[in-house]
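Re-running the complex after MR caught last week's input typo. The corrected sequence lines follow. Everything else is unchanged.
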Amino acid sequence: MSDDDCQHENEYSWWEYDARGIELARVCDKCVDAKLAKYRPEILTGYTQADVDEPIEPEWGGNW
Ligand SMILES: [Zn+2]
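Corrected-run output:
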């Protein structure tokens, strides 16, 4: 698919997906760490920049 795909031969490889189920890269044991390191953690875990920028509701309801 792309240069991101695993180029190793004779290695068990699998697809890594982002949180939305979109293929990121083909990886194997030798390169999974390096390939996933290029992606922001939010992509892998489901957070988007919009989520990060959202104001956080105070859990105490503002009653001091
Ligand atoms: Zn590989």
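None of the earlier attempt is carried over here. The longest strand covers residues 23-28. The chain has a mean pLDDT of 84.
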